[in-house]
Amino acid sequence: MSNLVKLQYEALRLDGKNYDEWTLYTTLHLESMKLGEVIKEGNMTSLQDKSKATIFLRHHIQEGLQAKYKDIKDPLQLWTNLKERECNFKKYSQLISSLLVVEQNNELLLRNHQTHPTGSQPFPEVNATTSSNNRGHGRGPSRGHGQKNYRLRGGHNKKFQSHQPK
Question: Its domain of life (predicted)?
Answer without folding.
Answer: Eukaryota
